[in-house]
Design goal:
Length: 408
Amino acid sequence: MEHNIVLLGSDINAYYMARCVHELYGVKTDLIAAERIRFTEFSSIVNIHYYPELRTSEGFKEALIDYGKTHLDLGRSLVIPCHDIYVRLLLENAEALTSYYVFNCPKLEIADSFLDKEIFYKTYADSGLDFAKTIYYDCSVTKTEPIPVDMVYPLIIKPGDGIEYNRHHFEGQPKVFKATTPDNAVAFIDKVKASGYKGTLLVQEFILGDDSNLFDSVFYCNSKGKAELATFAQIGLQEHSPTAIGNCTVLINGYNQYGGTQEVVARLKNFLETIGYTGFCEFDLKYDSRDGKFKVMEINPRQARSSYYLAALGYNLIEILTEDVFEHKQNSFALVDREYLLSMVPKSVIKEHIYNEDYKDEALKLWRRGKKVDPLKYKGEHSLKHKFYLILRAINYKKKYRQYTNTI
């Protein structure tokens, strides 16, 4: 390996990015992380440096300078954030870190416009993207007013600032809340306010359809702001537990029961290039059968927890980055449309909990043909503890899907 690579985080995103390094170079990857997470804690393909204060600006800067000073023998390290908070902290401290690191991430103002959902929807209202009807609720106001009567229930309520929302814990705190009546909408908002969260809540119309109405689109835009790579995948299942809902567990790249893939991808590509986006990003979309549009729910300014399927399709995410930032290689745009299944759950969960029969049949067909991948199951992983964790995780998934029925 000609250059040092360091990952920020210890979650599933960090694991599969380390897997990409190992597949490409056959070496362990250094992780800088704030906490022990089972995805990486026992892995044989990573070295983890824990810094408890990593999620603070000063702690982050201190940790990265400390690491960077001792890893200049191969030149500046390629640093890759694997969580929203590390994207934000890296961009915020970029000037202090430039002597030690290179990276390809969006500009700070663009990242901020994605991470704060109120700013996101307001900034890009006229961008050509399609969105669900949205209103904004200010949690700094003392009295909780009812949702306007022209909003038809059920409604989705989610934080405008997810990073700040997660700093204020309360019992049963969901990632996204589905309000079925005016009373439980107000009750939930009161809970959020009581936790100390003073930001904005987004109240959106609920788009009908189960998990198979959801879509995932990953893009890579080079350091010149040109899109080089895109995927478009139909999701079959997402996490169903309240704290993890919205995270994909089953998807099929290159599969779209509703059609219009080329048109949608062209619109997303034009959007990113117009705003000068750089780096990886992931669009979360939901197909709305009422108007035939793919509504953008959010955009993550990084690769997402499910994005490893690019590597399974022959596009190693680490190789893409290193060719850009170190070799300054530019590639023409490619839509990766080959069908491939990503599944983080056992086959039995697909059989029992995907109710879209055509989608289920396609997923099982790809499984039988070996056209599937689980980012965590890697033949180069030699840790028995990690493998045992995956066995327990599979058992737990079976229990979770029986316990929780998704209604979002």
